[in-house]
């Protein structure tokens, strides 16, 4: 029997066809290094810096192409929101976040600022929020969403930069992460619901158990308007995004990953009794599926 902890889920949102992963630009850096994964070579930097927005300050609607939707989700060091940000990265990668903006569910415009920083206003229906852009690590899309999500703590949207400091860790076994994830995503679309299934790595599990778990997740996410986001927990201290759903090869399951805090890609082999990465030889202790 599989060792799983289950809760109901349905990341119900507007879902376009899955998009291909696009590497973020990492220019103007003093030191660069390459990380090679099954998806190819990728320029990255441990300085965690990205180029500034390349458009001039002006007022008016922000074009979709200037939302930096090809920039991966960024997690600030020392913060504990990996369990949420890893899910957000999968939603970005698969194109769901883009759909929120492309459909005008979230509208963004640049407004006049008395400082040297860019100032933006987002609107969702009759709700609006304004914030000043900060830092170079986050894409504009993520800054907008953090301005929306920070309201979860009854904080004004203008305090967007406080979001990652506010969010607390939820990495223990039995955690119902789907509940706060759902509550935050409902700030974007009140119709979104989220549930979760968890596969805990155990010595008694087999690849067949992993296969049954994966099959169950596919069945749950087949409905119109449903999403499926996998994440891995590393030693109960950090959660990372699965940038590909698990697939079987040679009697084991493999999933590509992206660590939103270190910007490192890897590939994990999941057999049930073990979950180990090919590049860093890091171990994971659980596989999480959100629908």
Derived structural class: alpha+beta
Number of helices: 6
Give the SSE order as H and E letters: EEEEHHEEEHHHEHEEEEEEE
Q: Count the strands?
A: 15
Radius of gyration: 19 Å
> Describe the biggest sheet?
9 strands, antiparallel
Rounded to the nearest angstrom, the distance between the terminal CA atoms is: 22 Å
Strand content: 25-35%
Low-confidence blocks of residues: 1-10, 12-53
* Quaternary structure state of the chains depicted: single chain
pLDDT averaged over residues: 83
Approximate helicity band: 10-25%
Task: Please state the overall shape, judged from the principal axes of the Cα atoms.
Answer: elongated
Characterise this structure.
The chain has 291 residues and is an alpha+beta fold. Helices cover 19% and strands 25% of the residues. The protein has six helices and 15 strands. Strands 1, 8, 9, 10, 11, 12, 13, 14 and 15 form a nine-stranded antiparallel sheet that branches. It starts with a strand and ends with a strand. Residues 1-10 and 12-53 have low confidence and may be disordered.
SSE diagram, text form:
Layout: E1 4-6, E2 33-37, E3 40-44, E4 60-61, H1 82-93, H2 96-102, E5 107-111, E6 119-124, E7 127-132, H3 140-149, H4 163-166, H5 178-185, E8 196-200, H6 207-220, E9 229-234, E10 238-242, E11 247-249, E12 252-259, E13 264-270, E14 275-277, E15 286-290
Antiparallel strand pairs: 1-8, 2-3, 4-5, 5-6, 6-7, 8-15, 9-10, 9-15, 10-12, 11-12, 12-13, 13-14
List keywords for this structure.
291 residues; alpha+beta; nine-stranded antiparallel beta sheet; 6 helices
């Amino acid at each position: 029997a599989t060792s799983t902890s289950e809760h109901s889920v349905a990341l119900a949102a507007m879902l376009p066809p899955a998009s291909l992963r696009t590497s973020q630009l990492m220019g103007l850096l003093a030191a660069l290094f390459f990380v090679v994964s099954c998806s190819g070579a990728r320029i990255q930097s441990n300085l965690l810096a990205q180029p500034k927005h390349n458009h001039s300050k002006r007022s008016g609607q922000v074009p979709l192409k200037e939302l930096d939707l090809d920039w991966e989700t960024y997690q600030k060091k020392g913060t504990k929101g990996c369990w949420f940000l890893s899910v957000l990265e999968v939603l970005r990668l698969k194109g769901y976040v883009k759909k929120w903006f492309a459909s005008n569910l979230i509208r963004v415009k640049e407004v006049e600022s008395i400082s040297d920083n860019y100032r933006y206003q987002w609107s969702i229906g009759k709700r609006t929020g304004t914030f000043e852009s900060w830092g170079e690590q986050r894409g504009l899309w993520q800054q907008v969403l953090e301005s929306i999500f920070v309201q979860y703590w009854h904080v004004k949207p203008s305090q967007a930069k406080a979001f990652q400091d506010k969010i607390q860790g939820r990495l223990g076994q039995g955690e119902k992460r789907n509940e706060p994830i759902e509550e935050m995503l409902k700030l974007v679309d009140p119709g979104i619901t989220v549930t979760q299934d968890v596969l805990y790595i155990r010595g008694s599990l087999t690849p067949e158990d992993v296969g049954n778990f994966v099959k169950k997740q596919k069945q749950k996410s087949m409905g119109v308007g449903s999403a499926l986001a996998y994440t891995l927990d590393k030693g109960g201290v950090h959660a990372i995004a699965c940038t590909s759903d698990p697939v079987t090869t040679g009697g084991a399951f493999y999933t590509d990953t992206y660590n939103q805090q270190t910007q490192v890609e890897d590939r994990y082999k999941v057999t049930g009794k073990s979950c180990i990465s090919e590049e860093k030889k890091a171990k994971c202790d659980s596989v999480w599926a959100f629908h």
